C-alpha cells in the first residue's frame, strides 16, 4: 500500500496539469488560481534542484553512517551483511517516519533514505549467511527491494530499477553450456520481462491516464524496451556473448528486431501511450541503424547521409500528413504543440544533446487553437528555446 | 477524484467555459494527442546524422572528389540553408519571436554545422588561418550573430561553447593541463558571459537568453576554481576564491529564486572545502565521521532554505 493516499497523488498531478494549461494559455491566470486552490494538498515540497542536492547529501550521509558503524564494530563480511540488512530496514522505516512527521513529498531526504534502503538491502542480501558474493542475490535483492520501495512510496525510478534488475536476473544463472549457452538466459530474461510487461499493462489499463496508471505505463514501456535490447544481438553483446554463430538464433532475433518496434507502435498508437510510443520509435531507429551489420554488410560513408535524409523525410511527410487532416488532425493525432510542457521536454532533450554534437533548440510554432472561445484564447504559449 | 471529474465540477461551478471543458477533457483523455516532440526528435536525428555522413564522405573521398567539388557542395548547402532562413524569418526584434515553420530551426542548425564543416575543411586542406584559433573565433562570431538574428537559444549555446574552445577551455583540459593560465582564462570567460548576459538583459536585447549566459558563466568559473583546489600544486587562493564564488552563487540564487545556482554553490563549495580538510585527516573513521557531520549540516541548511525560499514544484 502506498504511503501517499491516491487522492493526494491525483491532486498533485492535477496541480501540474493546471499549471501546464495556464502556461499554455488554455486557461487564464484568473481561472488557474481557484482551480489550484481546489486541489491543494498538505505536503512539504521543494524545487528540483534543492531536492536533487538533498538527495545526494542524504544518500551520502546514510552510506557514511553505515560504514562508520561497520568500522567501529570491526564487522567482517557476514557481520557487514547483517548490518546492511538492519540498516536497510532502518532506512526504509526512517523514510516513512520523516514523511509521517514532516509530511515530505519528493523533498529529497525521504527519497535518499528509501533509495539507500534498496542499496543496503541488496548489499546485505549479496553476502548474507555465507559471506560470499552472489551476483544472483544482488540482482534479485535490488529488484525486490526496489519494487517494495516503488509500491510503498511510488518512486518511479525505483519501479524502473525493479523492472530492469528483475529482467537481468537470469543472466546470473547458467542453464546450458556449449554452443547454445547464452540463448536460454536471454529467453528466460525475455519471459520475465514479458510477464512484467503484461502485468504493468493490465495495471495501467485499470487506471488509464490517472495515477497510478502513469507509473505503470512507464514500467510497461521499460519492460518492452528491455525486451528489445535483449533481442537485438548487435546492441546487447556487452551484456553477455550472444550465440550468434547459430543461424536459427541469429535470424530469429533479426526478425524480432523488426517485429517488436512494429508491435510496440501498434499498441502505443491504439492506446495513445506516450512512453511506449517513444520507446518504439527509438527501437525502430535502432533497428534501421543495426540492419546493415545484422545482414553482414559493409558500412559506407554515405550510410548516415541516406539515414539522415530518411529521418528528415519521415518527419516532414508525417507532419504534412497530420496537418492536412480535418482540423489539422488525423484521428486525434496532431503535429502541433498542445502544451507548454512539450516544449520543456524538447528543451531538456536539446540541453542533453548540447553535450554531444549539438542540437537545434527550435523555436516554438504558434500552436493552432486547441479549442476556440472561452477565456483561453486557445493558443500562443510564448515559451521557446 | 479524477481529473475529468474535477473538470466537470469546474464547468458546473462556472470556473471554466464549456469550450474549455471540451478542449481540456480531450487533452486529458488523449483524444487530442500531439506528436510535436517526437517529430522534432526525428528531425534532429536526421540533421545530425546527415551532417556526420557528409563529413565522413568528404573525408574519405577527398582525393577522388577534389577540393573544388567538395567546397562547392559545402558552400551550396550553406547558401541554401542560410538563404532559406533569411528569406523566411520575420524581421529582427529584441523580444522573443516565433519560428516561421516547423523545419526552420533545423535548417538553421544544419547551416551552422555545415559552416563548421566548411571551416574545418578549409583549415585542414589549405591551412589559410594558420591554426584553429581563427576558425573557432570566426565560427563563434557567426553563430552568435545568427543566434540573435533568428532568436535561437541553442545556436547561442553553440556560439558560447565555441568561444570557450577558442579560449582553450575544455573540461578535459583541466585534467591534462596543469596550468593557472587556463583557469584564469576560464574565470575571465565566465565573468565575460555573466557581464554580457546581465548587460544585454539590462538593455532588453533578447532578455530571455539570460539563463544561457548565467549557466555557462557560473559553471565555467566554479569548475576552474574547483580544479585549482583539487590540484595539490595550486595555491590556497583557489579555495578562497571558490568559497567566495560558491557563497555568491548561493546568495544570488536565493535572491533571484534560481535554485540551480544554490545547488551549484553548495556542491562546489562543499567539494572544495572537503578536499582541503580531508587532506588533514588521518584514518577512515574520522573521514566517515566528517561526512556524516558536515553532510548533516548541509542538509539542515538546505532544509531551512527549502522551507523559507524554495518553491513547491
Main sheet overview of chain A: 2 strands, antiparallel
Q: Spans of chain B of 5+ residues with little confidence (pLDDT < 50)?
A: none
Q: What share of the residues of chain A does DSSP label as strand, in percent?
A: under 5%
pLDDT averaged residue by residue of chain B:
90
Q: Largest sheet of chain A, order of strands side by side? A: 1-2
- Beta-strand segment tally of chain A: 2
Structural class of chain A: mainly alpha
**Chain-averaged pLDDT of chain A:** 89
**Termini separation of chain B:** 21 Å
Q: Provide the low-confidence segments of chain A as ranges.
A: 355-385
Query: What general form of chain A does the structure show?
Result: flat
- Binned, the helix content of chain B reads over 70%
Structural overview:
The complex is a heterodimer of chains A (385) and B (313). Chain A has 385 residues and is mostly helical. Among the domains of chain A are: 43-173, no CATH class; 175-299, no CATH class. Chain A has helices at 6-23, 29-38, 48-72, 77-102, 109-126, 135-153, 156-168, 183-207, 213-231, 247-271, 274-294, 303-323, 340-353; strands at residues 329-330, 333-334. Chain A has a two-stranded antiparallel ribbon. The radius of gyration of chain A is 24 Å and the shape is flat. Chain B has 313 residues and is an all-alpha fold. Chain B has 3 domains: 1-33, no CATH class; 35-153, no CATH class; 167-313, no CATH class. Chain B has helices at 3-12, 18-28, 36-60, 62-65, 67-88, 104-126, 132-150, 153-166, 171-176, 180-202, 210-230, 237-255, 259-279, 284-308, and one strand spanning 33-34. The two termini of chain B are 21 Å apart. The chains are: A mainly alpha (385), B mainly alpha (313). The interface between A and B is large, with 102 and 96 residues.
Amino acid at each position: 500500500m502506498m504511503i501517499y493516499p491516491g487522492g493526494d497523488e491525483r491532486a498533485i498531478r492535477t496541480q501540474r496539469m493546471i499549471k501546464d494549461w495556464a502556461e499554455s494559455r488554455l486557461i487564464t491566470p484568473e481561472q488557474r488560481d481557484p482551480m489550484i486552490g481546489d486541489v491543494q494538498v498538505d505536503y512539504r515540497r521543494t524545487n528540483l534542484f534543492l531536492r536533487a542536492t538533498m538527495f545526494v547529501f542524504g544518500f551520502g550521509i546514510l552510506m557514511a553512517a553505515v560504514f562508520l558503524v561497520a568500522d567501529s564494530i570491526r564487522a567482517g563480511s557476514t557481520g557487514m551483511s547483517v548490518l546492511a540488512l538492519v540498516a536497510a530496514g532502518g532506512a526504509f522505516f526512517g523514510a516513512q517516519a520523516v514523511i509521517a512527521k514532516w509530511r515530505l513529498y519528493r523533498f529529497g531526504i525521504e527519497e535518499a533514505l528509501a533509495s539507500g534502503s534498496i542499496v543496503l538491502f541488496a548489499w546485505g542480501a549479496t553476502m548474507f549467511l555465507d559471506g560470499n558474493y552472489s551476483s544472483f542475490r544482488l540482482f534479485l535483492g535490488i529488484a525486490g527491494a526496489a519494487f517494495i520501495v516503488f509500491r510503498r512510496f511510488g518512486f518511479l525510478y525505483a519501479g524502473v530499477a525493479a523492472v530492469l534488475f528483475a529482467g537481468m536476473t537470469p543472466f546470473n544463472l547458467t542453464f546450458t553450456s556449449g554452443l547454445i549457452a547464452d540463448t536460454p538466459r536471454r529467453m528466460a530474461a525475455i519471459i520475465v520481462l514479458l510477464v512484467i510487461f503484461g502485468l504493468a499493462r493490465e495495471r495501467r489499463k485499470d487506471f488509464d491516464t490517472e495515477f497510478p496508471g502513469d507509473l505503470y505505463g512507464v514500467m510497461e514501456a521499460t519492460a518492452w524496451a528491455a525486451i528489445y535490447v535483449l533481442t537485438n544481438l548487435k546492441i546487447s553483446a556487452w551484456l553477455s556473448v550472444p550465440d550468434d554463430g547459430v543461424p536459427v538464433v541469429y535470424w530469429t532475433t533479426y526478425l524480432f528486431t523488426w517485429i517488436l518496434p512494429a508491435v510496440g507502435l501498434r499498441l502505443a498508437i491504439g492506446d495513445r501511450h506516450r512512453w511506449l510510443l517513444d520507446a518504439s520509435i527509438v527501437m525502430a531507429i535502432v533497428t534501421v541503424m543495426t540492419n546493415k551489420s545484422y545482414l553482414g554488410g559493409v558500412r559506407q560513408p554515405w550510410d548516415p547521409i541516406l539515414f539522415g535524409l530518411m529521418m528528415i523525410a519521415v518527419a516532414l511527410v508525417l507532419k504534412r500528413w497530420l496537418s492536412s487532416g480535418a482540423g489539422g488532425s488525423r484521428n486525434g493525432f496532431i503535429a502541433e504543440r498542445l502544451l507548454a510542457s512539450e516544449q520543456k521536454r524538447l528543451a531538456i532533450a536539446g540541453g542533453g544533446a548540447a553535450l554531444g554534437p549539438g542540437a537545434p533548440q527550435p523555436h516554438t510554432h504558434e500552436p493552432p487553437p486547441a479549442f476556440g472561445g472561452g477565456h483561453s484564447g486557445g493558443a500562443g504559449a510564448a515559451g521557446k528555446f | 477524484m479524477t481529473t475529468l471529474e474535477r473538470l466537470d465540477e469546474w464547468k458546473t461551478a462556472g470556473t471554466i467555459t464549456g469550450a474549455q471543458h471540451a478542449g481540456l477533457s480531450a487533452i486529458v483523455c488523449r483524444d487530442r494527442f500531439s506528436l510535436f516532440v517526437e517529430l522534432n526528435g526525428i528531425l534532429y536525428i536526421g540533421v545530425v546524422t546527415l551532417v556526420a555522413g557528409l563529413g565522413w564522405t568528404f573525408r574519405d573521398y577527398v582525393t577522388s572528389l577534389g577540393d573544388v567539388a567538395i567546397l562547392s557542395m559545402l558552400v551550396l548547402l550553406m547558401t541554401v540553408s542560410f538563404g532559406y532562413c533569411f528569406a523566411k524569418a520575420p524581421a529582427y526584434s529584441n523580444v522573443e519571436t516565433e519560428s516561421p515553420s516547423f523545419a526552420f530551426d533545423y535548417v538553421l542548425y544544419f547551416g551552422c554545422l555545415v559552416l563548421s564543416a566548411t571551416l574545418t575543411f578549409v583549415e585542414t586542406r589549405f591551412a589559410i588561418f594558420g591554426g584553429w584559433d581563427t576558425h573557432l573565433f570566426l565560427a563563434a562570431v557567426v553563430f552568435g550573430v545568427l543566434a540573435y538574428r533568428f532568436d535561437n537559444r541553442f545556436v547561442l549555446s553553440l556560439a558560447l561553447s565555441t568561444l570557450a574552445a577558442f579560449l582553450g577551455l575544455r573540461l578535459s583540459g583541466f585534467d591534462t593541463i596543469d596550468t593557472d593560465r587556463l583557469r584564469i582564462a576560464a574565470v575571465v570567460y565566465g565573468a565575460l558571459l555573466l557581464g554580457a548576459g546581465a548587460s544585454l538583459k539590462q538593455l532588453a536585447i533578447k532578455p530571455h537568453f539570460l539563463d544561457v549566459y548565467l549557466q555557462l558563466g557560473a559553471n565555467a568559473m566554479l569548475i576552474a576554481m574547483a580544479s585549482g583546489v583539487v590540484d595539490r600544486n595550486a595555491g590556497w587562493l583557489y579555495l578562497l576564491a571558490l568559497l567566495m564564488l560558491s557563497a555568491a552563487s548561493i546568495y544570488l540564487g536565493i535572491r533571484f529564486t534560481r535554485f540551480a545556482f544554490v545547488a551549484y554553490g553548495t556542491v562546489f563549495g562543499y567539494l572544495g572545502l572537503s578536499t582541503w580538510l580531508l587532506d588533514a585527516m588521518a584514518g577512515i573513521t574520522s573521514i566517515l565521521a566528517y561526512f556524516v557531520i558536515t553532510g548533516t549540516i548541509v542538509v539542515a541548511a538546505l532544509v531551512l532554505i527549502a522551507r523559507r525560499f524554495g518553491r513547491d514544484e
